[in-house]
Amino acid sequence: MKQVLSIISVLMVLLTFGCTLDTQNGSQETKVNTSSNANKEMSVHFIDVGQGDSILIQSPEGKKMLIDGGKKEKGKDVVTYLRQQGIEKLDYVVATHPDADHIGGLLAVLNSISIKNFIDSGKEHTTETYENMLQLILDKHIPFIVPSVGDTIPLDSDLEITVLNTGGNANDNNEASIVLKVQYEDISFLLTGDADAGVEKSMLSEYDLKSTVLKAGHHGSDTSSSDAFIREVQPEVTILSYGENNMYGHPTPEVVTRLKKVDSDIYSTAEVGNIVVKTDGRDYTVETDSIRKEEESVADTPLYISKKDVHEEIVGITNQGEEAVNLAGWQLLSVAGNQVYNFPNMSIDAGETIYITSGPDAKEDASHLKWTTRQMWRNEGDAAQLLNEKGVVMSEVE
What we know:
By secondary structure, this protein is an alpha/beta fold.
C-alpha cells in the first residue's frame, strides 16, 4: 500500500501540470457546436473483451479516447483492435475504476500506444496490476488526471463529455466508477463502468440522464440498472459487455426484463462481438461483428410458452424442434410479481410439453414441475417470460 501511495503522490504532481479538464468553477465549459459539424461522424466502439469493458470513442474531429481495457490477457486484443482502426495515439485513456477486468488490458495499451492524458477515478487499490499501471504512467510522463464530478473532458469541441460520477473517497471500487455522458447534438451516450444502484440513485437527483445509448453498469448485474434508473434513462439502445457463459450469471434476467420494458434494443458483446455505434449527431446506426441480434435468436429456439393459465397457476413449455433441449440455467419469469422459477438440470424432448405448476393444487410428476404452493400469477396483466441460460427472453405471453 505504501508503494501505491508513493506512486500516486508523484502522479498527483504530474496532475498539477497536466490536468486539461474543464471544471465547474474554472474555464468555460465545452459546449456542443451545432453549427459546424454537418456530415461529420463520430463512432463509439464497444470492444469485445469477454468478461470486462473496453470502449473506444472516435470524435467528429478524429480525436480518440479509450475507456478501460478489459482483463490483462485481453490487452493484446485491444491493441490489435486499435491498430486495425489506424490508431497509434490516444488523446485520453480513462480507467473507470481499478478492477482487473477494466484496467488489466491497459498495461498492454500503455506499452504499445502513445497516450496524451490518463484519467483515473482516484480510487486507490493494492493489486499488482494497479501498481504496475501507475508505474507505467509515471515512467512515461503521462499527465495523470483525477476528475471531479461536473468536470468536462475537452476531447472535441463538437462533443460535450461530462463526468457524472467519480470516486477517490468511494467505499468500494464499483462505487468509484467514473460515469461519463457524451453528447453529440441529438445523440447521447451514457457510459457507466460498474456503477451500482447507489451511484445511479445519486445521479438521478443531479442530472438529466436520458440517453440514446446506455452501456449498462456492471455487465448487466442486478447490482446496477435499477428500475428507476432505466425508466429515467429511456435508452433506445443498450450495450451489455460480458463474457459468454460467465460464472457470475451476467446479465441477470431482471435487468434484461427492465430493458425490455422500456423497448430498448439490446446488444451484447458475448452474442455479436464488437459493437460500433456511428452517428452524425442526428441519426445513428449500430454495426456488429455478427448479424445476429437477440431478437433474431428468439426465432432459432424451438422452445416457447404454449399455455398460461393464471387461475389454474400453470404454464406450459413446448419443444417444437426436432432435438431435445437441456433446460439447465433456463428460467420462467412472472413479470408483474418479479418471481423467477429456475429450471432443474433436465431436458425436454422434441415434441414434448412440460408444465410448471404453482398454488395450493401444484403437482409434480413426469410432465409437471412444482414451483411452489404459493400463488405466483396475478389474474390480470402478469406476463410470463421464458429466458434461456444467457438471460435472453425467448418467449413471452401476456
